[in-house]
Amino acid sequence: MTAGPGHDRGGVVPVTSGAFGVVWGLVRGNAAGWGSAEVLGALVLGVALVIAFVLWERRAKAPMLPMRFFRLRAFATANPANFCVFASLYGTLFFLAQYFQTVHGEGPLGGGLRLMPWTATLMVCAPIAGALADRYGERAFTAGGLLLQTAGMGWIAVVSGTGTDYLEILPALVIGGAGLTMAMPAAQKAVVGAVRPQEVGQASGAFMMLRIFGGVFGVAVAVFAGVGGYASAEEFGAGFSAAMGAAGTGGAAATQTAKPALCAPSAPLCGPLLRPLYAAPTSALHPSERLVPRGRPAPSQGGHA
């Protein structure tokens, strides 16, 4: 943890309440209506409390999540990519099993078995990607894996239908699964490797929270609710294709956020959002709080060598 006695109690309340408000609004959106006072109120209040949390953390002596982390390019790009990956992943996992049962007529066991080529890649690709990322760096595996995920979900969106054979979908499952299992460990390694060892818990906590938020966001679920339904195999198939297209879009968005240039302070896309986090000059920080790029020695505090 960051130096300083006690815990960041002032940060716990707004971030917990803000997360609860955002999650409540997202979960209740389809049932209560996205324009209802309940959903809009929860989302607005949640976002306001999260903003209050950011403002508090910028001034706290021992912040729960130091905002200076966002000046680290790896941290500031891998976390949004992580969010987009899980926003598409959860929707994909939710609908694929139902697709095999509703459209292909498989039972629960048959639907689960047909998912194995997608999920089994975790046991093969993740350890290999994690080991190779140590040698070649995380960026290539994160971006490359997300491109494979986008290609796999796009493939399924194009070919899926009531008459689609399983073998037409199988290569896409393998490609998409391999991409995800390449990107996830590389992104997590990039996040925790960007901070000092005593700050790994804080960085990992932010990474995991955004992962859960991505799952709750469920872009694919929202698209399905607006396009498809369960009345017939044809109606479900139409919604499923739209959901897979949304999952592919999420993967493409994650690939873009994995490019460091897009999240630099001067970048046109997200620079205006992140620029306030870069605003505090490094010279204003205590020497122990300054970020030192990996591979460079920390500056000496006792004069020139």
UniProtKB/TrEMBL annotation:
<dbReference type="InterPro" id="IPR036259">
    <property type="entry name" value="MFS_trans_sf"/>
</dbReference>
<feature type="region of interest" description="Disordered">
    <location>
        <begin position="286"/>
        <end position="305"/>
    </location>
</feature>
<feature type="transmembrane region" description="Helical">
    <location>
        <begin position="77"/>
        <end position="100"/>
    </location>
</feature>
<keyword id="KW-1133">Transmembrane helix</keyword>
<feature type="transmembrane region" description="Helical">
    <location>
        <begin position="140"/>
        <end position="163"/>
    </location>
</feature>
<keyword id="KW-0813">Transport</keyword>
<feature type="transmembrane region" description="Helical">
    <location>
        <begin position="208"/>
        <end position="231"/>
    </location>
</feature>
<dbReference type="GO" id="GO:0022857">
    <property type="term" value="F:transmembrane transporter activity"/>
</dbReference>
<feature type="transmembrane region" description="Helical">
    <location>
        <begin position="34"/>
        <end position="56"/>
    </location>
</feature>
<dbReference type="InterPro" id="IPR011701">
    <property type="entry name" value="MFS"/>
</dbReference>
<protein>
    <submittedName>
        <fullName>MFS family permease</fullName>
    </submittedName>
</protein>
<keyword id="KW-0812">Transmembrane</keyword>
<dbReference type="Pfam" id="PF07690">
    <property type="entry name" value="MFS_1"/>
</dbReference>
<feature type="transmembrane region" description="Helical">
    <location>
        <begin position="169"/>
        <end position="187"/>
    </location>
</feature>
<feature type="transmembrane region" description="Helical">
    <location>
        <begin position="115"/>
        <end position="133"/>
    </location>
</feature>
<keyword id="KW-1003">Cell membrane</keyword>
<keyword id="KW-0472">Membrane</keyword>
<dbReference type="GO" id="GO:0005886">
    <property type="term" value="C:plasma membrane"/>
</dbReference>
